[in-house]
Design a protein that fits this description.
The complex is a heterodimer of chains A (249) and B (437).
Chain A lengths: L1 E10 L2 E11 L4 E5 L6 H9 L4 E10 L2 E2 L5 H6 L2 E4 L6 E5 H15 L7 H14 L10 E2 L5 H15 L3 E5 L7 H14 L5 E5 L4 H5 L4 E6 L2 E6 L1 H10 L5 H4 L1
Parallel strand pairs in A: 3-10, 3-11, 6-9, 9-10
Antiparallel strand pairs in A: 1-2, 1-4, 4-5, 7-8, 11-12
Helix pairs in contact in A: 4-5, 5-6
Chain B lengths: L2 H8 L10 H14 L15 H5 L26 E6 L2 E3 L12 E5 L5 H13 L6 H9 L4 E5 L9 E7 L5 E11 L4 E10 L6 E11 L4 E8 L6 E10 L4 E9 L3 E10 L5 E9 L5 E10 L5 E10 L4 E10 L7 E10 L5 E10 L5 E9 L3 H8 L5 H17 L5 H15 L3 H4 L6
The chains are: A alpha/beta (249), B alpha/beta (437).
Chain lengths: 249, 437
């Protein structure tokens, strides 16, 4: 599904990723943990193709194709989804308009007929319900005036609409209360399938109680310094990251 | 050429209309005082009038509709009382005069009764709030006009729909003056829709409007300046609000070689309230200049102005928004926000919000921003599969969409969205999701 090899990337001429390797197979859930400033968010931004993130070395294959050659929107249409840590507010563009444009573009790319307005609304309302967002949110501007939790649930709602092959959740749990966390996890778990993968970036072990990962990686100073199964997350919770610093060099 | 010489040579002799002769004489005096605007004239600093001077625009008065491809079927299907002007001349044959309800009078200045003529004279002579050379010139040119006189407590159910159609075979100059007098507790919606034939030669439309709202009168005014091409349009809208009167305005400006709107509101009665939303979208080499002047003259009045501009290509947009709080106007609430979006490196915006406050217990806010499209928002849309080009169109449209929703008239909103869609591009792929659902 996703093969990252020796990835180096910089932002504003500052090198953040320094030789990152990661292999994600279909159906797997990988958790990435690590101290602040390790490069966790940078990884998500680089993979999604955000402007300003420059890859200086290494390669990334997504579904067998060179991901780094593709424009942001093409990556998305090919099935890569990034749930943002800080979703942007866009007043004046309604959630519905935005979602319809997004779903239409993705379906067209996949050679599918566009959904008509009735089908689309039905689907959008269903997914809203699944993440416990009131339908009135659909008419509002994208994330406009949403609370932190509502923004995160809106990300999951979009993910459910787009049904990506690979979803990267960038600290989707931060700022969520326990009920919202459950909603987000339910959304992810409902989408888990043998041909869909997840990369869950988080600071806290708590989320991983709800979304049980197959692998846990520790990202420190731009590299993955330790990998293990879900028990590694518990170990990190108890011991912190300090004991791994030596292994980073 | 000095302006006095210019005025003597260029301005045709004053028209002979006896009952308006004082108006004309005063206008000419003012014009001589002001002189013709140049780069140092504050009111016209960013809007050069060279085009008006150089061409034959001023010298050829338009004598009416010599030809017309005007077709009512191309208008939005507004269920309203249509009053049509072609090249500044009222066309009763194209208008729905029979639909005017009882208590509403639509009368030519020259045919108005004595009381009405005295009223009109007073309005034209002292009702212009923001005076400058072009309002003075207008004053010297008015020979006739139209008064809409609405009795007390009359509520006109359907919108009154003024259509201004411009179409002429050669460059010409037309002058139009109108007054709207709303009696106590009367209420109406007025849609002013300016449009032009694509084949029309350049025209200079010079107009003035006076709105006079008596106690508790309510007016919703929608000013749609959608005439394109080579049109020059200069106009001044002046409103007086008595106690608890309410004025709500929506302005949309598209196209034109040079457009200038002076929109002034005088809050003269306690409890008077006004709101202005404007969406201005010049592109190509178009030029749009909006000057607002909101006067708060007595205590307990309110105003709110939201002006948004999107300038593309080599277009220029000018905004000057002035709020003036008089010494006795305590407890005034006045807000002005002007946001500008530049879509090209060559587009220009000149904005100047002004606050002049002489009372000490008021709440006022004003601000202006100029920016380009937000990269983060662009990235967000693209990360969901939306192409960069479509994302740009969606974000630009989003910048003004909330203003358009305030029109509160579905047929009109639909029509405006259609016009905007073609403004944003002929490519249907890029505009298919605008205002949808």
């Amino acid at each position: 599904m996703l093969a990252i090899e020796n990835l180096h990337a910089q932002v504003d001429e500052k090198t953040i990723l320094k030789g990152l390797n990661l292999n994600v197979k279909p159906g797997e859930v990988h958790a990435i943990m690590g101290p602040n400033g390790a490069g966790k968010s940078t990884l998500g931004n680089v993979l999604s193709g955000r402007d300003g993130y420059e890859v200086t070395e290494g390669k990334v294959l997504f579904d067998g194709h060179n991901l780094l050659d593709q424009d942001t929107e093409v990556r998305a249409r090919n099935g890569l989804f990034l749930a943002f840590q800080y979703p942007v507010e866009i007043p004046g563009v309604s959630n519905l308009e935005f979602l319809k444009a997004s779903v239409d573009a993705t379906r067209e790319h996949q050679g599918l007929e566009p959904l008509d307005a009735v089908q689309f609304l039905k689907l959008a309302r269903e997914k809203c319900k699944a993440v416990n967002l009131d339908q009135s949110f659909l008419k509002r501007g994208v994330n406009e005036g949403f609370s932190g939790g509502e923004k995160k649930r809106n990300e999951i709602m979009q993910m459910m609409m787009l049904e990506p092959k690979l979803a990267i959740l960038d600290e989707t749990d931060s700022g969520l209360d326990i009920d919202a966390l459950q909603v987000v996890a339910d959304g992810v778990n409902a989408l888990r399938s043998p041909d869909r993968s997840f990369i869950v970036v988080t600071h806290y072990q708590r989320l991983l109680d709800f979304i049980v990962p197959d692998y846990v990686h520790v990202l420190a100073d731009g590299k993955i310094v330790k990998s293990g199964d879900k028990s590694l997350a518990l170990e990190l919770e108890n011991k912190g990251y300090g004991w791994l610093q030596g292994q980073a060099s | 050429m000095s302006s006095a010489t210019w005025i003597n040579e260029q301005i045709p002799p004053e028209p002979k209309v006896d009952w308006l002769s004082t108006l004309h004489r005063e206008g000419l005096n003012q014009l001589t005082d002001f002189g013709w605007p140049n780069r140092k004239t504050e009111a016209w600093k960013y809007s050069p009038l060279t085009r008006v001077l150089k061409g034959s625009l001023l010298e050829t008065p338009n004598t009416g509709s010599e030809l017309s491809s005007f077709n009512a079927a191309n208008l939005p299907a507004v269920d309203g009382i249509r009053l049509v002007f072609v090249n500044g001349q009222f066309e009763s044959g194209l208008s729905d005069l029979e639909q005017l309800p009882a208590g509403v009078c639509w009368v030519r200045y020259s045919e108005a009764n004595q009381e009405q003529q005295a009223y009109i004279q007073a309005q034209l002579q002292s009702g212009v709030v923001a005076q400058h050379s072009l309002t003075a010139l207008h004053q010297t040119r008015v020979v006739d006009g139209w008064l809409l006189d609405v009795d007390e407590k009359v509520r006109i159910e359907k919108p009154v729909y003024w259509v201004h159609w411009a179409e002429a075979s050669e460059e010409s100059y037309s002058v139009l003056s109108r007054c709207v007098r709303l009696g106590k507790q009367s209420e109406m919606t007025l849609i002013e829709h300016q449009l032009s034939s694509e084949q029309s030669a350049a025209q200079f439309q010079h107009q003035s409007v006076h709105f006079d709202l008596a106690d508790s009168a309510r007016l919703r005014h929608q000013l749609l300046q959608l005439d394109g091409g080579d049109q020059v349009s200069v106009g001044s809208w002046n409103s007086r609000l008595a106690n608890h009167a309410y004025l709500e305005t929506f302005i949309m400006g598209l196209g034109g070689h040079l457009k200038r709107v002076d929109y002034s509101v005088c809050h003269q009665g306690e409890g008077a309230e006004s709101r202005l939303d404007a969406a201005i979208l010049p592109k190509d080499k178009q030029h749009f200049d909006l000057h607002t002047q909101f006067e708060h003259e007595v205590p307990h009045t309110q105003s709110q102005q939201v002006v948004r501009t999107i300038a593309d290509d080599q277009a220029k947009a000018v905004f000057n928004g002035r709020i003036h709080i008089h010494p006795q106007a305590q407890k005034t609430l006045a807000e002005l926000s002007n946001k500008n979006l530049l879509l090209s490196e060559q587009a220009e915006v000149y904005t100047k919000p002004e606050l002049e406050i002489y009372a000490d217990d008021v709440r006022c806010a004003h601000g202006a921003t100029v920016s380009q499209l937000d990269h983060q928002a662009l990235n967000y849309l693209r990360s969901r599969g939306i192409s960069k080009a479509e994302a740009e169109v969606m974000l630009s449209f989003g910048f003004i969409q909330t203003l358009i929703q305030r029109v509160d008239h579905d047929v009109l909103i639909h029509y405006l969205v259609e016009r905007l869609t073609s403004w944003f591009g002929a490519d249907q792929q890029l505009t298919q999701h605008l205002g949808s659902l």
